Amino acid sequence: MTQHISTCTLCEATCGILVTVDEGRVTRIVGDPDDPFSRGHICPKAAALADLQHDPDRLTHPVRRTATGWERVSWDEALDEAAGRIHALQREHGVDAMAVYLGNPNVHNLGSMLFMPDFIRALRTKRRYSATSVDQLPHMLANQEMFGHAGLFPIPDLDRCDFLLMFGANPVVSNGSIMTAPGVRKRLKQIAGRGELVVVDPRRTETAEIASAHHFIRPGTDALALAAMVHVIFAERTPNLTHLAEDARNLNRLRDFVQPFAPERVAGVTGIPAESLRALALKLADTERAAVYGRMGTCTQDFGGTSSMLLYALNAITGHLDSVGGMMFTEPALDSVHTPTGKPGRAYRRYGRWHSRVRGLPEFAGELPVATLAEDILTPGDDAIRGMVVWAGNPVLSCPNGKQLDEALAGLDFLVSVDLYITETNRHADLILPVVPPLSRSHYDAAFNSLAVRNVAKYVPAALPTTGEERHDWQVCVDLEERLARARGVGAIARAKLMARRKVGPEGILAGSLRLGPHGLRSGLRGVSLSKLKAEPHGVDLGPLKPCLRSRMPSDWDGVDLCPELYDAAREGLQAALDGPADGLLLIGRRQLRTNNSWLHNAPRLMKGADRCTLLMHPQDAAARAIEDGSRVRVSSRVGFVEVPVALSDDMMRGVVSLPHGFGHGRDGVGWTHAAEHAGASINDLTDDQRVDVVSGNAALNGTPVEVAAAGA
Ligand SMILES: Nc1nc2c(c(=O)[nH]1)N[C@H]1C(S)=C(S)[C@@H](COP(=O)(O)OP(=O)(O)OC[C@H]3O[C@@H](n4cnc5c(=O)[nH]c(N)nc54)[C@H](O)[C@@H]3O)O[C@H]1N2
Ligand SMILES: Nc1nc2c(c(=O)[nH]1)N[C@H]1C(S)=C(S)[C@@H](COP(=O)(O)OP(=O)(O)OC[C@H]3O[C@@H](n4cnc5c(=O)[nH]c(N)nc54)[C@H](O)[C@@H]3O)O[C@H]1N2
Ligand code: SF4
Ligand SMILES: [Mo]
């Protein structure tokens, strides 16, 4: 029996775990009390890492789809065919005939983080999509437009904050997002204990439950509420920008932007009384250590872009951007923002350099909004998308109008998927290339150490070997690149470079990057290195966040832009939104403690108990439609309908209903046997691909207009 020190990669919290292995099987997973960051905390999902490891449904060798079902093929065959068909398709129809979709788990995977960018470049296509545009894109756009770099995320300084105002996030269940903070529930309770935690959400969530106060807000109206709070600061306080020194600009533009949105004007449509908005704004201004934070609920909605911009601006003008206890910036040991010399690079804006094919939505950070993917496949024309690579993603369940995307994928000339399972998405694939499960990978958290509430670093080796033929994601990147290079007749130098990268591997790149990072050689010989991390396997704490924005913004960036011009595109829509929505129900999503987007429903221990794919509805909304608690209802939107059981709850705001996302495993040919027994319905068969934020192109998953009626009525 052996015990391995490891890290859970299932969510952003990066908890330290201890994995007991007996004769090749995981027998126990517990929290690691010696991890200086997570201190023993874990959630019920950690144990599911064992289910993943030993799941008989998990693919352990490449497969090819045939008329009679999946057949086992060798890696050589599969890779040759994949590269050959990508090459042939691009030669015949142009490089952009191939598209790629990258899913969320890539960000939790060191090898993918380090090798995927090169693979994407090697694909040569501009048709790149990812889960970013159904998630945090609005934050990234605001980072770029306000601070000069899409990767400069402000993080709430949780442990020193005395007043946290939280919009559209539910960390008690999600375990925190763009706020890596293992044991976040305890950290939030401490804020409520020493000060105040206020939650603004259309549902009285599990986080609202432990908060000092909760306000219902009508979905999609956060930008109006935030504009009103900024309005209050201008009207009743002097914007406090001293902490940013001369590094802030466009204050007058901001004043002008929020001018139409006095609290009295937005109270009706947001559902938050004017005096509450005023009191919250003034409390922010008058509390020394305070922050306003927003997440999924503020991003994936009609005004996601503007909400993110105003959130940052409100922090800035109340003295809480880049200051202790407010919204701060990490200085991660592996730093993707700074150049290896330690100097901030030049600002380069990546927005609108090309556009989606049918709707003409702008590229951001090299990607197109995924809400446009299906139409860019389905609309006939010479420039249509004909082939795809889907890597660690399940867009049929995770992107708006999933049914339409399902149809689109079924009609592709070629689809190759890199995944652990046969999913709702890759059941349409020609080839599936299987990769190793989390506990068989070494790990350094390249993404979430950069979003953590303290500066931390930790490296763990793989806990278990693989027993099948699975390869590492990074290996598959290089495998495919090599074959593409060969098919295209690319020169010897490029191929030698690839061989060198394969040889160096993730560890080699990590070692070099850590030495060159802010805590490496620059902090002297005792700074962070891979060997130091290997000697401290529970991880190292590099201290609390420090004000550092000036040194992290690009050198040619003119200081924080409090109101970038790009957001003018939203002005008209915001004005129109003041007149309020038509009557009717708005649908929002929710997460649950025992789920992880669409892909942990096959873990038996997480799926025990009652059906969790239920529609939450306020009792009065139900009574008005003669709907009874526990009955089946039909929920319909512009794009489709689903049938689910209803659970009545006065935790819902009137006029708002909620359905979890990630379900809908009842489709034919899905390889998740256990998940299929608890299939549920997909909320994304209701969300609308035509609803996007006008500034960022991010999908407006929340606030979908729906009708609800008794099923069969
Ligand atoms: N309506 C609605 N829709 C949503 C959301 C919502 O709140 N509401 N949330 C959105 C958000 S925040 C996100 S991030 C997206 C997620 O959207 P996606 O990333 O498209 O979907 P996931 O469900 O995370 O599926 C991940 C897939 O990767 C596979 N996988 C897991 N680990 C690995 C690995 O290491 N390597 C490889 N190659 N494959 C792996 C899994 O088997 C699974 O098939 O969904 C979005 N969709
Ligand atoms: N257990 C579990 N944990 C997870 C995941 C999971 O699937 N399961 N997924 C992971 C991923 S990929 C992510 S991105 C994070 C997300 O982490 P969070 O953002 O913390 O999680 P959500 O539950 O999506 O919270 C969004 C909240 O916004 C509210 N909301 C909806 N519409 C609006 C609106 O218009 N305005 C406001 N103010 N609120 C609104 C919803 O009611 C919900 O409570 O969670 C991660 N952690
Ligand atoms: S909170 Fe997240 S990282 Fe921690 S054990 Fe749960 S799933 Fe894993
Ligand atoms: Mo996400």
How many β-strands, per DSSP? 30
First-last Cα distance: 59 Å
CATH secondary-structure class of the largest domain = Alpha Beta
Please give the share of residues in helix.
Answer: 25-40%
CATH topology of the largest domain: Dimethylsulfoxide Reductase, domain 2
User: What radius of gyration results from the CA coordinates?
Assistant: 25 Å
CATH superfamily of the largest domain: Dimethylsulfoxide Reductase, domain 2
Structural class comes to alpha/beta
**Overall CATH architecture of the largest domain:** 3-Layer(aba) Sandwich
Can you summarize this structure?
This protein has about 725 residues and is an alpha/beta fold.
Features:
binds iron/sulfur cluster, 30 strands, 713 residues, Rossmann fold, 31% helix, Dimethylsulfoxide Reductase, domain 2, alpha/beta, single chain, N-terminal domain of TfIIb, 6-stranded mixed beta sheet, 23 helices, binds molybdenum atom, 4 domains
Detailed description of the structure:
By secondary structure, the chain is an alpha/beta fold. It has 4 domains: 2-54, ADC-like domains (N-terminal domain of TfIIb, Single Sheet); 63-125 and 369-436 and 465-527, Rossmann fold (3-Layer(aba) Sandwich); 137-330 and 559-571, Dimethylsulfoxide Reductase, domain 2, CATH 3.40.228; 582-710, Barwin-like endoglucanases (Beta Barrel). The strands form 9 sheets. A 7-stranded mixed beta sheet has the order 5-4-19-18-17-6-7, covered by helices on one side. Strands 26-28-27-30-25-29 form a 6-stranded mixed beta sheet. The longest helix has 25 residues, at 492-516. The mean pLDDT is 96. The structure holds ligand MGD (2 copies), iron/sulfur cluster and molybdenum atom (MO). Molybdenum atom binds at residues 104, 135.
